[in-house]
């Protein structure tokens, strides 16, 4: 069912019980920065792909290294939302926390001393939409540990001693909620005493979302191995190939049940980049690993000898709005002039004041219209579509569509509503993963490659950052200037492929002026620039939105 379109320009929000999703990542980053601080570029690629909200790292060597990861790996390309906890310099390699400050606030931090390394405690709370009014605070207790390495009973007992220090610390916290204990545990089997203590002992036994087993050098559990990404020596670290599960995220019973407003999302825990086909092999050996884009695979290989471990958690908040805003940025190739898009169309006498998508192939019959164009930065109308699915992106097919709406696109790439300044919104709660599609009259449609999560009532996504932002990657998307990506122009007949049928559309309109489909660069004129600079250069590109 396609629902109607609602714009909210002003006025108070209505409240409802709603859900937010947080992505948690633990990652051993191999003595960073060491002698290779440039590895921050690999960290950036991984994090731009994952978009984690809570990032805990092992083997960081200095506050300078932590600042490098923050400034050059997280807060890049206009992003400013990440903050870090204070770096605590212990007596061996250390831990660090980075977090999405739009969703979370760092309440406190502490350390637990062990014979080898510090275990770090970070207490965060959820930044609810109207926290100042309700004081309805949801706390998280995060712990990051790097336990003693190597085989043998002596080292296993040292790992147990470290775990017992943590257990004593947490058991002295009455009514602790939403406990996460993760990091590089260096355990070889679930029968090890350190693992058994974490799972069974104390006031807060922890849960492992992945199977207990003898993981070491066991091909039956190749899907959960997190070390080593390498079989050759460079930059330090282990070189044995993928054959150990050393990296973990464990959590308390209330996270499993959701009793304290935070719940683990079933089957969401995994080692990023492990496709299960590289047992005792390098991550980049044949067969080709297609679990992540190649650039991410290379970044994982060169960043560290460990893979990051990911899990998703759901936050139940009673303070989120019942109207949801769309904060989207996208560029059209045709009118893009190197920095922004031209606005030539709104000067035409026949620029439509009612949405133009009420015809095939869109068949969208919404009643969006305006009396006049008041905003001089308007480029054209676009059609935004939302699809909700419990599967991956390939399952976001037309039957999963929950909403469509016609909006205006501004020259800086932002999409605005009928008031020509505010963000568009919709009034449907989303329970599963949400994928966003942007359509234009004569450009190839695009869809987000990953689910877009809500943050205090707002779904934000910047399509222009790189090719991995869109489903199908560069197969249906294009770099329109260095590090800026946009929708591909010249799909004149809107069949999803740029071919000679589109040139025929252009040919029938050549020499004309006005709001016409053959105007591939949106300058109001149909001429050779549309053919040579748009159609010819894009011949054979196809759109990738799931059918």
| Unreliable spans | 1-17
* Total E-strand runs: 24
Structural class given helices, strands, pairing?
Answer: alpha+beta
Biggest pleated-sheet summary: 7 strands, mixed
Number of distinct helices: 9
- What is the radius of gyration computed over CA atoms, rounded to a whole number of angstroms? 26 Å
Q: On the 0-100 scale, what is the average pLDDT? A: 92
Instruction: Give the overall silhouette.
Output: elongated
Helical content band: 10-25%
Report, as a whole number of angstroms, the end-to-end distance: 16 Å
The percent range for strand residues is 25-35%
Description:
The chain is α+β, with helices and mostly antiparallel strands. 16% of the residues lie in helices and 28% in strands. It contains nine helices and 24 strands. The strands form five sheets. Strands 1, 2, 3, 4, 11, 12 and 13 form a seven-stranded mixed sheet that branches. The chain has a six-stranded mixed sheet with strand order 5-6-7-8-10-9. A hairpin with a 2-residue loop joins strand 23 (478-481) and strand 24. Helix 1 (40-50) crosses helix 2 and helix 4 runs parallel beside helix 5.
